[in-house]
Amino acid sequence: MEEQSVNKSEELASRFGEAIARLDGDESLLREMAAITAADLPEVIDETDQALQVGDSEQAASGLHKLKGMLSTFETGGVTVEVHEMLEMARRDGVVEAKRSFDRHRSELNDLVAEITAIAAK
């Protein structure tokens, strides 16, 4: 059983080492944050997607800002950078561009959400 715990810890450190470092090595805090974030992410993603679909740049920017904040706890590169770019697009009233980018990166976003949810379940 202890070996499984070590393997999970190594796996977590491998994927989210930078996040753990920002939390002074506190993996349990990362898990707690993941549980909170995983519970809220689906609603934030859906609200953001809806705002983008109807062309509401203000609501889209608000949702993208929340999403960026939630994701950046775990990852500062990858899709989090793309969400930041979408946020800037929405703020410039480029909601159509932001929607295209959101759709294009949805798979990456879903993958990160799944990883965050998995952390919460450990």
Structure description:
- With 122 residues, the protein is an all-alpha fold.
- It has one domain (2-121).
- It contains six helices and no strands.
- It has helices spanning 2-22, 27-54, 57-72, 79-91, 95-104, 106-121.
- It starts with a helix and ends with a helix.
Largest sheet: none
Domains counted in the coordinates: how many? 1
Low-confidence stretches: none
Distance N to C terminus = 13 Å
- Broad shape: elongated
**What is the averaged pLDDT score?**
91
Strand content: under 5%
Domain HPt: 26-122
Protein name: Hpt domain protein
Modified residues (Phosphohistidine): 65
GO biological process, one term: phosphorelay signal transduction system
Helix and strand topology:
Blueprint: H1 2-22, H2 27-54, H3 57-72, H4 79-91, H5 95-104, H6 106-121
Helix pairs in contact: 2-3, 2-6, 3-4, 4-5
Summarize the structure.
The chain is mainly alpha-helical and 122 residues long. The chain has one domain.
Quick tags:
single chain; 6 helices; HPT_dom_sf; 122 residues
